[in-house]
Amino acid sequence: MKLLIVLRHPFELWNAPPWLSVRLHEAFPTVEAVQLSSYDGIEDYLRDAEVAITWSLRPEQFKVAGKLRWIHSPAAAVHQLMFPALVNSDVLLTNAREIHGPVVAEHVMALIFAVAKCLPQAVRLQQKHLWGQGLMWHGRPRPRELAGATLGVVGLGSIGRAVARHASNLDMRVIAVREHPEKERSHNVQQVLPISQVEVLLSQSDYVVLAVPVTSKTRGLMEVSRLDKMKPDAWLINVGRGSLIDEAALIDALREKKIGGAALDVFEEEPLSADSPLWELENLLITPHTAGMTDKLWQRHYALISENLRRYLEGQPLLCLVDKKQGY
Predict the structure, then answer these.
(1) Overall domain count for the chain
(2) Within 10 A of 228 (CB to CB), how many other CB atoms are there?
(3) pLDDT digits 0-9 by tens, 97-141
(4) Which of 9, 50, 104, 256 sits between 20 and 30 A of 185, alpha carbons compared?
């Protein structure tokens, strides 16, 4: 059986280390693991590959992969693979949501602490050699405590559940929206609403976390009318995908101080261009898509891939299986 690994990204951490194919072949001697560093000529390798580890395939590439039975994406988001031929096929699709979820949730909590305690303002004042105690207290929003604040989580996947657990341990009130609210039975979430009632969540939340996959229902979710539903001192935090937010609408809301601020780890276009107006907004905290970074990343990837490969060879159900009709 041939397993094809093809991942190419300008940022080195997202590329599979050379040892991945070696360890997989050592653990599963019947598996021929081929690892490529480029998509050039991938069609020649896809023709007899039964398993592919990649985060993107074009429809024409998928068409030549007649033996393909399982695709694993090392990303959590799989919207780039949701073209009709793949969605309607029998090819299994898994993702790495359980790999990234706990790490990204830590980043979310770091952002919430940072904006609640006005740490970005403190850093700017430090750079100016200013003792800004009074400036920070009289600023907007001023430093505040998290206990008793309301956290609204949009999406209760691996990220959202972990964020809810951390926030609950801090005595925050946690409310959430998800596609199927009847499935949530967590004591960490006080109220779960359907996605159609996201405005209710926005109107109550002091911090809104976007941790939902990109689908036809969530693309452009945070547009003008929904930003207007947020509290005037609330913060919007996005660790999902940039396309969840109408960036132009958010820029206007931040410039006009309609909300307290935003903390973004993901953007519609990445890298964020140097001339983007987002850089100039003082009530915006930018992290350059670093929420999932950890030096343990590929060890965790290997653990999931090898366990799923064992299951696949033994005909057992796979972990982190994607519902292709739902898109997540």
Answers:
(1) 2
(2) 14
(3) 999 999 999 999 999 999 999 999 999 999 999 999 999 999 998
(4) 104
Query: CATH number, domain at 211?
Result: 3.40.50.720
Measured CA to CA, the distance from residue 179 to residue 190 in angstroms comes to 17
- For residues 188 and 211, is the Cβ–Cβ distance under 8 A? no
Beta strands in 230-299, from DSSP E residues, in sequence order: 235-238, 261-264, 284-286
Place of tokens 């005037």: 232
Contact of 297 with 104, CB cutoff 8 Å: no
Residue 34, SS3 per DSSP: strand
Report if residue 324 sits inside a domain: no
DSSP 90: S
DSSP 247: H
Residues 60 and 17 in one domain: yes
Domain check: are 153 and 249 in the same one?
yes
Torsion angle defined by CA atoms of residues 175, 179, 183 and 188, in that order, rounded to the nearest 10 degrees: -20
Cα–Cα nearest to 289, from 312, 314, 310, 272: 272
Specify whether 77 is located in the same domain as 106: no
Taking alpha carbons only, the member of 239, 240, 233, 264 closest to residue 250 is 264
What single letter denotes the amino acid at residue 11? F
Q: Are residues 51 and 8 in the same domain?
A: yes
Do residues 140 and 250 share a domain?
A: yes
Question: Is the separation of the CB atoms in 222 and 236 below 8 Å?
Answer: yes
Q: Rounded to whole angstroms, how far apart are CA atoms 259 and 162?
A: 25
Residues near 128 by Cβ (< 8 Å), separated by ≥ 6?
none
Regarding whether 247 and 138 lie in a shared domain, the answer is: yes
Structure tokens given for 212: 């939902």
270-290 per-position pLDDT tens digit: 999 999 999 999 999 999 999
Q: Grade residue 183 by pLDDT with cuts at 50, 70 and 90.
A: confident
The CA–CA distances, whole Å, from 60 to 5, 6, 85, 174 equal 18, 16, 10, 44
Residues catalogued as catalytic: 241, 270, 289
